[in-house]
From TrEMBL:
Residues 1-154 form the Histidine kinase domain. It comes from Deinococcus cellulosilyticus (strain DSM 18568 / NBRC 106333 / KACC 11606 / 5516J-15). The lineage of its organism: Bacteria, Thermotogati, Deinococcota, Deinococci, Deinococcales. The chain holds residues 626 to 784 of 784 of the full protein. This is histidine kinase.
Length: 159
C-alpha cells in the first residue's frame, strides 16, 4: 500500500475518461468535481473508480445515463457513480459486497454481461484500506448509486 497525497478529483477524472473512451452506449454526465486531496494510493483509487464505472456500464441498458459527482465537507470527500440501469433488489443489496455474489442472471433477460463477482469485494477492500465507507443505494428497475466516502488529508486546509 503506497501512501501519498492524492488529488481525488484528478484520479476520478482519469477513470471517467478511460470509461468514456470505451463506452459509446450511454449518456455520460460529469458534474463539476471540486479539487480535493486525500491520503492514499493513486492506482488503487483509480481501480476503485473503474470498478464502479464498469458496473454502471454493464448493468445499464443502452441509452441509459451514467453520472459521476463529488462533494466534500471538512472531514471527508464523497463521490458517487450513478446509473439509470436495472437496479438491485432490497434482498440482493446487502449481499453485493460478498465475494463471487452475483444477482440471479434471469433478471438480465438472457443478456447477462458476465463477470466473476469480485469487483465490489475488491472495491470494498480498497475503501477499507483508506479508512472509508462504501455502500450502494438502489431501486430495482430504476438505477443505482455506488457511494464512496473517504477521509480527507490535512492538506486541504492549506489549499
Ligand atoms: P466482476 O466485477 O468481477 O466482473 P460482477 O460485476 O458480477 O463481476 P461485482 O462488481 O462484485 O461483480 O458486482 C456484484 C453484483 O452486484 C453484480 O453481479 C450485479 O448483479 C450487482 N451490481 C453491481 N453493480 C450494479 C449496478 N450498478 N447496477 C445493478 N446491479 C449491480
Ligand atoms: Mg463488476
Amino acid at each position: 500500500f503506497k501512501e501519498d497525497e492524492v488529488r481525488l478529483d484528478q484520479v476520478l477524472l482519469d477513470a471517467w475518461r478511460e470509461t468514456e473512451r470505451i463506452n459509446r452506449n450511454h449518456h455520460m454526465v460529469l458534474t463539476d468535481l471540486p479539487r480535493v486531496w486525500i491520503y492514499g494510493d493513486r492506482d488503487r483509487l483509480k481501480q476503485l473508480a473503474l470498478i464502479l464505472l464498469e458496473n454502471a456500464t454493464k448493468y445499464t441498458p443502452k441509452g441509459g445515463t451514467i453520472q459521476l459527482s463529488l462533494k466534500t465537507n471538512s472531514q471527508s470527500a464523497e463521490f458517487r457513480v450513478s446509473d439509470s440501469g436495472i437496479g438491485i433488489s432490497e434482498t440482493d443489496l446487502p449481499r453485493v459486497f460478498e465475494r463471487f455474489y452475483r444477482v440471479d442472471k434471469a433478471r438480465h433477460r438472457g443478456q447477462d454481461p458476465g463477470g466473476t463477482g469480485l469487483g465490489l469485494p475488491i472495491a470494498k477492500w480498497i475503501v477499507d484500506q483508506h479508512h472509508g465507507d462504501i455502500w450502494m443505494e438502489s431501486k430495482l428497475g430504476e438505477g443505482t448509486h455506488a457511494v464512496v466516502r473517504l477521509p480527507l488529508s490535512e492538506d486541504n486546509s492549506t489549499s
